[in-house]
Every structure is written in structure tokens, then in C-alpha cells.
Amino acid sequence: MSMLKIFDVSGSAVSAQTQRLNVVASNLANVDTVAGPDGSVYRNRQVVFETTYMDELTSAGVRVSNVREDDTPGRRVFDPKHPAADQQGYVTYANVNAVEEVVNMISASRSYQNNIEVMNTAKSLALKTLQMGQG
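== Flagellar basal-body rod protein FlgC ==
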């Protein structure tokens, strides 16, 4: 694999992890939202990755193929005084688990950092190789 392909592979991963971090941020921002007047509530979203081949199967990267919504029911809390309570006195909140989202955020950010480190290392090696050619 050539040096330049390393940047392509890591760059694709950085881009995918950026999208993942944006989805996690959206999930965390909506963790305590309640159902609107139409009864729909924010649904947890998850990023689905897929392998993408850069050129004729010699190097692979990653891309976001889909952002899917979780169809599990939202969290129901008994609060009959809440304006969004249903007939039984329950309020339906988004089906977002804040702890899982924080773990997802840490994982995405570490993956992002690792791929940046790979690109920095490849850059450093390329510069050292050029310096060797000058001397």
C-alpha cells in the first residue's frame, strides 16, 4: 500500500466518525424530549458503517451507509400533571439512553483521534523519507 492510500483510508474513517459524533450529539440533545402533539417522539439514531474499496480492492476505507432509527418504544414516566401526559397519566420520552450515548461518543472520539494519529505518523514517515533522500 502506498503512503498516499494511508491518508485515504484514515481520512475516510475520520469523516465517518465525524458523522457518528454528530448523530450522538443529536441523540444526547434529545434525551429528555417528550412526544409532541401528534404523539411522535424523537427516536434514537445509530450510524451504520460499511467498507468501501478505494481502487480495485487494493485498499479499503469506511463510509456511513445509513443512519437508522431505533424503533423501540420510548421511556414512559408516570406524571399526570405534565402537559404532555396521555390519558393514563404517562409521559413518553425519547428512547435515548444517555449512558450508552456517552460510551458511543467516547468510542467515536477515540477512533477519530487514532486515525488522526495514523495520518500524523504517515506524514512524519514521509518527511523522514524525503530528508533521507536529500542527504
